[in-house]
Design a protein that fits this description.
Elements lengths: L7 H6 L2 H5 L5 H13 L10 H38 L2 H5 L3 H5 L3 H29 L5 H9 L17
């Protein structure tokens, strides 16, 4: 008579340490994955490296797509505002306002950007000069202050000749 014994693989699969570990259900694993997707630095991490890297990549892609859509929504809102202004009485009086708010084409945008940068630079210089200069500007004093520390080059005078 043969005795019935369990196969050796089944004995190895269930050890005493495995019986005490609680097995996670699929719902718990999905919950952990969503928590990890929301904040990878804190909270439970998925067991597999492949799952963690997939979730982290999905997080970065979702954040990128969100901010790209947000940027396009800002552009659409600016365009809608420019169209609304252009359609009112203000738009008919100041027809160039729409071009300044939303210039057309690459060259138009570059031109308005350049104009804005030059104006900003000039405004900063004028404000700094007003703060430094005090009440009134004295051009001779300004030139003298600018020329301090510079060595004056000697001027050589050449005799004047007449060509005829």
């Amino acid at each position: 008579m043969a005795t019935a014994t369990a196969p050796p693989d089944a004995q190895l699969a269930t050890t005493s340490s495995d019986r005490h570990l609680p097995q996670k259900t699929k719902l718990q694993k999905a919950s952990d994955s969503i928590k990890y997707l929301y904040d990878p630095a804190h909270g439970p991490q998925p067991d597999r490296l492949r799952t963690r890297s997939l979730l982290r990549s999905a997080r970065y892609i979702a954040i990128f797509i969100f901010w790209r859509l947000f940027r396009y929504a800002k552009y659409a809102a600016t365009g809608a505002l420019a169209a609304a202004v252009a359609g009112t009485a203000i738009g008919s009086v100041a027809s160039g306002a729409a071009f300044v708010i939303a210039p057309t084409g690459i060259l138009g945008g570059a031109g308005v950007g350049l104009l804005w940068a030059v104006g900003k630079f000039g405004w900063r210089r004028a404000r700094a000069r007003m703060e430094r200069g005090g009440k009134g500007g004295d051009p001779r004093r300004d030139e003298h202050e600018d020329a301090e520390g510079e060595v004056a080059e000697p001027v050589v005078r050449v005799p004047r000749t007449e060509p005829w």
